[in-house]
Write a structure and sequence with these properties.
The complex is a heterodimer of chains A (894) and B (171). Helices cover 28% and strands 17% of the residues of chain A. Chain A is of the alpha/beta class. Among the domains of chain A are: 94 residues, Ubiquitin-like (UB roll) (Roll); 177 residues, Rossmann fold, CATH 3.40.50; 196 residues, Dimethylsulfoxide Reductase, domain 2 (3-Layer(aba) Sandwich); 91 residues, Barwin-like endoglucanases, CATH 2.40.40.20. In chain A, the strands form ten sheets. A seven-stranded mixed β-sheet of chain A has the order 16-15-26-25-24-17-18, sandwiched between helices. In chain A, strands 2-1-5-3-4 form a five-stranded mixed β-sheet, with helices on both faces. Chain B is 18% helix and 16% strand. Classes of the chains: A alpha/beta (894), B alpha+beta (171). The interface between A and B is large, with 46 and 49 residues.
């Protein structure tokens, strides 16, 4: 702790911070551009000039850049000093010299950091009349628009893209007046985190193209606190809507999870909610075998009839909230409910649940991942299945830089110096995956093999860490040598981390990780585990203790069940196509509640339009066992409603008691009936929560066009919609103060700070730290020790057959986001991958078409040679262009 | 008594004064050009619509009676896809005109907008757009702004230099 004086007042601050961070944390309005809490200081823009004084007698003082000045004990500063203020005004003026006078036609306008800073410094009139430099733009693909004229050359973009996200196809080209930020040629950014440039850029050089296509200013967006539904990490998002249509996804700061950054799948993947082919009306199959819209009451009556007359089973979904799934379970009874996961995924997800319960005190948060100093990734290609984790793992590797800098007495915020001190030294990351991944540029060593090999390696590592742990037998020496190195590194690390996932659909991999954790934690209490699952609520589904979808299919096959009620799930993703086909043919009735036209929806007899995350409230449980609430963004026109509302309507129609009316009752009912979910009631304030008698606004304080928005339909203004399910309001009215609970913070704005990444500063305990009112969500996993090590599974090393390695793709493998038009544009030509030896054996060359049979389904795709794959292993693309999911046995014939 | 007589005298005198009351609508009053009445959308000197759908009028409006939805043509030029003013709410304050960065929206001295049906007070873009430049001759926003649009490439706006050649080795 140090004491520094700013404008005559003394503050207790951390002496390892710089003055800019300290001043912002203490609430000062100090303009800046190139500094960013995650990218630290380079002192490039000269905007944060302050006056520094030698001592109390010094009246002259000297100008210093706040971001490059340590907050050392006893130092004296002035922000309001005239000379400093004048300097800041001049800096903005020269940064603005070439600015193109196009705020009116700029997507950044209204949430632009450059606008904020010109206003803050008081530069209101252009004096420069000379020629402005201009630039040509590049076409950067479907996600991001480029308008280089607006650039002020702060270098934030390249520092984020190259130094933080480790991308290499964005660079600063040219020098002096010619400096240009772009790619060598036109084309989309290769990095999976390029969307953050939209928020990192303080001007309008990089803007969201998906928002631009149906543009609306920030102040007109109706936002809600939401959770990304495109992977299991539960990143917090702030979707914005207008006129009942989702317009964009923006990052919502969470100090423990995503903090400032999202992945491109999360940011641009919400387009599935605005597709034209989406069911928006209840549909019923007509006499001539097509789905036709029917009235809501008729639809309910028809579904009631289907459920009442048949033997029905409900299929839940890892995409849907706990509430939706519980409501379906409640409608049909616990014994008639399956968790909607494929058999393999269900086993693996249950193994993860047990792993978390076993290590409840060692579960890392995504933020903690960044500070781990040795990582062992077991089986998961995280860039493709839990993308945001890959960005955090990259930071964990770079923690080494800060360590080396500290040894050289370099302050942690001195970005360039830290980078130079670190050079190419990274903390070790070991990967054991089926094939080379996008992380290979920073991994210390990668091991490639099928699920069995990976599990064996993990078992070997565990046995090397602790001799009590069972060692695998007949493992080749090469693998043992690797295990020795990994074990040695993990043992010597101060904060080792194990990452494991369900992507391989193999529970042995997860239990092997459990052994590694057990061996690690006996020696080092700081060891951390970070599991990933495949979908937003996969862990939540495993907590239901319900059987997998296999159970439902078997019941239909045996004739015990003749009606399926499917909640937001596509059965074709969960079991082999030929099997599902046969099952659907034998059904009397298929009822689907969904927001997308999936293959299952297309085959349904009755479709009830369910709300997507944007039209529903619900709770999701992320990969670390954190329950988080997402809130309805807008009320859509027509009968779209939450699955749990549909289920309540159906239960009433069936004459069964419904114990809930709104979210609060529903959550109470869940916790009463299923104690494993205790805690989810605390994930967000209840629907009756108020501050000073007020609700919490979804709209900004200056939402415009209220009396004209729907005037062409009816000139009389609509009555404001009332939210029956949460403490939020569907308007600009409500509590705007600084004590707004983090869970209900729909968007970031503070007076003078319009841009998302900068405004959030006012809601943090310190800049880049936790949210003042607490980071949202509660951990609900309770500790449960299952005792000793898990025994080795029986290996069936027949050696002869072909084995499957699922290959995921960030934009193709998650079926909701894959429906978003912008995302779909980024998926092209997925291939079956094999190594050269296997290709020779199969008699195919690179680019040839290969037909295989996987789980009894035929698949024909071009072949690509990937020598990182093991022998006899066939890489199968998971997603719309390959196989739709990891199924039961995954047997393959070539 | 005297005061009563004085009053009657005064009234009598007033009967011979010039009338202040104008016989509207037969006689139209003079309204200065800057009088704030019916709102119009003007065109730039080249005849293209001036409005770029920036939404500043909409947000400046104290009664929130303007709704604009942005459209973009294939050359990148922004224009209002729809422009809607609910005149039954408009208070003719002129804030929209002040906020407009392109001089597109202007208030005119016409106030004769009475309707029996309130729904008819909702004006669409086609009702608002006029064919001239209004009070601001000469100004063309896209000639000043740095964005490339149809008919104006990068570097062709007012006081702009040629686009930088990023491949050159010269400093």
């Amino acid at each position: 702790m140090a004491k520094i004086t700013i404008d005559g007042r003394q503050y207790d601050v951390d002496e390892t911070d710089n003055v800019l961070k300290v001043a912002l944390s203490k609430g000062f309005d100090l303009p800046y551009f190139c500094w960013h809490p995650e990218l630290h200081s380079v002192g490039a823009c000269r905007q944060c000039a302050v006056k520094q004084y030698k001592n109390g007698d010094d009246t002259q003082g000297q100008i210093a850049m706040a971001c490059m000045t340590p907050a050392s004990d006893g130092s004296l500063f002035s922000i309001s000093d005239n000379e400093a203020a004048e300097m800041r005004a001049q800096v903005v003026e020269w940064l603005m010299i070439n600015h193109p006078h196009d705020c009116a036609v700029c997507e950044e306008g209204g949430e632009c950091h450059l606008q904020d800073m010109t206003l803050m410094t008081g530069h209101t009139r252009r004096r420069y009349i000379g020629p402005k430099r201009t630039h040509r733009n590049q076409n950067l693909g479907p996600f991001i628009s480029h308008e280089m004229n607006r650039c002020i050359a702060c270098y934030r973009c390249v520092r984020y893209y190259r130094d933080y996200a480790d991308g290499n196809d964005l660079r600063a080209l040219g020098s002096h007046m010619n400096v240009y930020f772009g790619r060598d040629t036109d084309g989309p950014f290769e990095n999976e985190f390029s969307g953050n440039l939209v928020e990192v850029c303080p001007t309008g050089v990089f803007t969201d193209k998906t928002l631009g296509a149906h543009y609306i200013r920030k102040w007109d967006l109706q936002n809600a606190p939401s959770i990304c539904t495109h992977c299991s990490l539960g990143c917090n998002t702030s979707p914005g809507s207008r006129r009942g249509e989702l317009r964009r996804i923006q990052n919502r700061y969470h100090g423990e999870i995503n903090h400032y950054f999202l992945c491109d799948r999360g940011r641009f993947g919400a387009g599935f909610t605005t597709r034209d082919d989406r069911p928006r009306q209840p549909l019923s199959r007509s006499a001539n075998n097509v789905l036709e819209p029917v009235a809501k009451d008729d639809a309910i009556a028809a579904v009631r009839q289907a459920i009442a007359s048949g033997r029905a089973i409900g299929i839940g979904s890892p995409r849907a909230s706990i509430e939706d799934n519980y409501a379906l379970r409640h409608l049909l009874g616990a014994e008639h409910f399956v968790n909607g996961l494929s058999a393999a995924e269900s086993r693996a997800s249950h193994a993860v649940r047990d792993l978390l319960a076993d290590n409840a005190n060692h579960i890392a948060t995504l933020r903690e991942v960044e500070s781990c100093d040795a990582v062992f990734v077991i089986g998961e290609d995280v860039t493709q299945t839990a993308p945001r984790l890959a960005l955090s793992l990259r930071q964990s590797a770079k923690t080494k830089h800060f360590e080396l800098a500290r040894a050289a007495n370099i302050p942690k915020w001195h970005a360039r110096a830290v980078h130079e001190a670190g050079q190419h030294h990274y903390n070790p990351i070991f990967e054991a995956t089926p094939a080379a991944t996008r992380l290979q540029d920073i991994t210390a060593e990668s091991t490639h093999g099928d699920a069995q090999t990976i599990a064996q390696l993990a078992f070997a590592v565990a046995s090397r860490l602790d001799s009590q742990a069972p060692a695998p037998s007949n493992v080749d020496d090469e693998l043992l040598k690797r295990a020795e190195i990994i074990a040695e590194t993990l043992r010597n690390a101060t904060k080792p981390l194990i990452v494991v996932g369900t992507g391989l659909g193999d529970s042995d991999v997860v239990t092997a990780a459990g052994n590694v954790m057990k061996a690690l934690t006996t020696a080092n209490d700081a060891a951390q585990i970070f599991p990933t699952l495949l979908e937003a609520n996969s862990l939540g589904m495993s907590l239901f203790d319900a059987p997998s979808i296999d159970h439902a299919l078997t019941q239909v096959e045996s004739g015990d069940v003749d009606t399926l009620v499917v909640n937001q799930n596509d059965i074709f993703e969960r079991a082999p196509t030929h099997r599902v086909d046969a099952v659907l043919k034998n059904l009397k009735n298929l009822v689907v509640l969904d927001h997308s036209l999936t293959e299952t929806t297309a085959r349904a007899d009755h479709v009830l339009p369910a709300g997507s995350f944007a039209e529903a409230d619900g709770t999701l449980i992320n990969n670390e066992g954190r329950a988080q609430r997402f809130f309805q963004v807008f009320i859509s026109e027509g009968p779209i409603q939450e699955t749990w509302r549909w289920c309540a309507d159906l239960a009433r129609a069936l004459g069964r008691p419904v114990r809930w009316n709104g979210m609060d009752d529903l959550i109470t009912a869940i916790v009463d009936e299923l104690p494993q979910f205790a805690g989810i009631q605390d994930a967000a304030p209840s629907q009756s929560f108020r501050k000073a008698g007020m609700r919490f606004p979804r709209g900004t304080h200056r939402q415009a066009a209220r009396t004209a928005l729907y005037a062409e339909i009816d000139v009389r203004e609509r009555r404001p919609e009332v939210d029956a399910d949460s403490a939020l309001s569907f308007s600009m009215e409500g509590y705007h103060g600084s004590e707004l609970p983090s869970e209900l913070l729909a968007y970031a704005y503070a007076p003078g700070w319009e841009s998302n990444q900068q405004a959030i500063t006012r809601f943090q305990d310190e800049v880049g730290g936790h949210l003042k009112m607490g980071d949202p969500g509660v951990r609900i996993m309770t500790s449960k020790d299952n005792g000793g090590y898990t025994k080795l599974p029986q290996t069936n090393s027949d050696g002869g057959g072909w084995r499957v390695a699922p290959r995921y793709h960030i934009f193709d493998s998650e079926s909701q986001s894959a429906r978003a038009p912008a995302i779909a544009e980024r998926v092209n030509g997925r291939q079956i991958t094999v190594n050269r030896a296997s290709a020779d054996k199969l008699g195919v060359a690179d680019g040839d078409s290969l037909s295989i049979t996987i789980d009894g389904d035929a698949l024909s795709l071009p072949v690509a040679i990937d020598d990182s794959l093991g022998d006899q292993v066939i890489g199968i693309p998971i997603g719309s262009q390959g196989v739709s999911g990891v199924h039961a046995a995954s047997q393959v014939e070539a | 008594m005297l005061s009563v007589l004085r009053t009657i005298w005064m009234v009598l005198l007033h009967s011979f004064r010039k009338r202040d009351t104008v016989l509207y609508p037969e006689v139209k009053p003079y309204l200065p050009p800057r009088y704030r009445g019916r709102i119009v959308l003007t065109r730039d000197p080249d005849g293209a619509e001036r409005c770029v759908a920036c939404n500043l009028c909409s947000v400046a409006c104290p009664v929130d009676c303007i709704s604009v939805i942005k459209g973009e043509d294939e050359t990148g030029r922004w224009y209002p896809d729809t422009f809607q003013i609910n005149f039954s709410r408009c208070i003719y304050c002129g804030f929209c005109e002040e906020a407009c960065p392109t001089y597109a929206i202007q208030l005119t001295p016409d106030f004769e907008m009475g309707e029996f049906d309130r729904q008819k007070m909702v004006y669409e873009k086609s009702d608002l757009t006029i064919s001239g430049v209004g009070k601001r001759p000469g100004y063309n926003y896209y000639r000043v702004a740095g964005m490339a649009v149809g008919g104006k490439d990068k570097g062709e706006a007012v006081s702009e230099s040629e686009p930088v050649d990023i491949k050159t080795l010269l400093p």
